[in-house]
Write a structure and sequence with these properties.
Arc Repressor Mutant, subunit A; globular; alpha/beta; Helicase, Ruva Protein, domain 3; single chain; three-stranded antiparallel beta sheet; five-stranded parallel beta sheet; Rossmann fold; binds adenosine-5'-triphosphate; binds magnesium ion
């Protein structure tokens, strides 16, 4: 019997924290590495858009790919969209950094300086504040200065890629939380990737976000489905989930009995974030190695209380009372997905009267729709949380809008 040392707890629950064992993602990583090598070899390559629910490990994968790209010598831009988008503000500082790394002042070659001028046009027209871009004005008049993102973003990315090519390097862009881009920004990004690809310029693109992006991208530009691969990032399979628990412990000289592992796989439904939480807390509360099923069971109520108070609760608190009631109605049905009509029926209303609240929940990234007329949670296990948080299903009574407040309500 080895007593447990909390200092050596290997598990890493949290947003974007590299797990001690990146389990079950080798195939995805390998495909991405092949694509990167193809880009470096000037071969045509699709971009990738990783799709998955909350806490499945998308950010961790993007960060890992970012690291790999840097090792391979790519010049990289790595950004995360906040709710409400702001793509120009995100990209300008990163691309500026890229251009600096290409040695702006080198006397040979024109493309880097041209790209810097275009970047400056772009920053000016989209009112992005950046430090000086030390390069003469007027070298690129008429490029990336229309104020129409769908025209200017392609101009900019083409120019940066041409500059990279002139220096014999390639550009890699990593974009997290893609679902938060506005539809115009997403369309511009797609057009830009498309135009860069058509010119066979050296760029690797990897995005990640909630699964609704596939439909959003398709709606923005119909060719988006051919422009990107859409690898799904989801629950781990049982052997990967076991490895995610067992390998890090073993490296610290700690064993888990099979009963303990199976119980954690069952409780977490093999979702990576929950695996880290259970691993972490069970480690801290178990008396000694090997960790047993009973240790898992004893720790579980505390873990659920911890998740409720933190992970689930921060999301719940960002919702209006009507949005909360909608989700509570969904939870009554289970984990989903459900027909939108079924949910309305649970709430005792017509689907049309909850269409707005449903759309707001999609915009906030709380639910998504795989097929027309379907709705599902984006946060795994959220249905069970909703039932703990709001034990009774109340009748849904949408407030009548008075003419004066019309349009002002529910803007959050
Ligand atoms: N393959 C994996 N094996 C084990 N643990 C993982 C794996 N991938 C991610 N994790 C763990 O899962 C948690 C969530 O990871 P991450 O933040 O990357 O998820 P996400 O998909 O970006 O979530 P969100 O949609 O909320 O941004 C982290 O604690 C991370 O260590
Ligand atoms: Mg993330």
């Amino acid at each position: 019997m080895t007593p447990m040392d909390r200092r050596k707890n290997p598990y890493a629950p949290g947003a974007g924290l590299q797990p001690p064992e990146l389990a079950g993602r080798n195939k995805l990583l390998e495909e991405a590495m092949i694509d990167m090598d193809r880009v470096l070899d000037a071969r045509p390559t699709k971009g990738m858009m990783m799709l998955g629910l909350r806490g499945v490990g998308k950010t961790v994968l993007l960060n890992r790919l970012h690291g790999i790209a840097e090792e391979k010598g790519f010049r990289t831009a790595n950004v995360e969209a906040p709710e409400g988008g702001m793509l120009p503000q995100l990209l300008v500082p990163e691309l500026r950094q890229v251009l600096y790394s290409l040695d702006l002042k080198a006397s040979t070659g024109q493309m880097v300086r041209r790209a810097a001028s275009i970047l400056r046009n772009f920053a000016a027209v989209f009112k992005v504040k950046v430090g000086d871009i030390e390069i003469g004005v007027g070298e690129a008049a008429g490029k990336a200065d229309t104020g129409n993102l769908e025209q200017d973003l392609p101009d900019l990315l083409i120019a940066v890629c041409e500059a990279a090519k002139e220096r014999n390097v390639a550009l890699a862009i990593f974009l997290d939380e893609v679902q938060y881009l506005s539809s115009g920004e997403l369309a511009s990004l797609i057009v830009a990737c498309h135009e860069v690809a058509q010119r066979n310029l050296p760029m690797f693109f990897a995005g990640a976000g909630l699964p609704q992006i596939a439909a959003l991208a398709g709606n923005a530009k119909s060719y988006a489905e051919r422009l990107f691969n859409y690898p799904e990032v989801g629950q781990l399979d049982p052997s990967a989930a076991s490895a995610a628990l067992l390998h890090p412990a073993k490296r610290e000289g700690v064993e888990l009995e099979d009963g303990a592992v199976q119980q954690i796989l069952h409780l977490t439904e093999r979702y990576p974030y929950f695996i880290q939480e259970w691993g972490f807390h069970v480690w801290n509360s178990a008396p000694a190695s090997p960790i047993k099923r009973i240790d898992v069971n004893e720790a579980t109520p505390g873990i659920i209380a911890h998740l409720d108070a933190n992970f689930f609760r921060v999301r719940f608190d960002r919702l209006t009372p009507l949005q909360q009631k909608y989700l509570r109605g969904m939870a009554e049905l289970g984990a989903g997905p459900f027909q939108t009509g079924e949910i309305a029926a649970k709430l005792g209303v017509e689907p049309a009267s909850v269409a707005t609240v449903r759309q707001q929940l999609i915009n906030k990234g709380m639910v998504w729709s795989q097929r027309h007329g379907e709705t599902a949670f984006t946060v795994p296990l959220f249905d069970e949380f909703m039932k703990r948080q709001m034990p009774t299903l109340e009748k849904y009574v949408p407030k009548k809008r008075s003419p004066r407040t019309k349009g002002k309500r529910d803007k959050r």
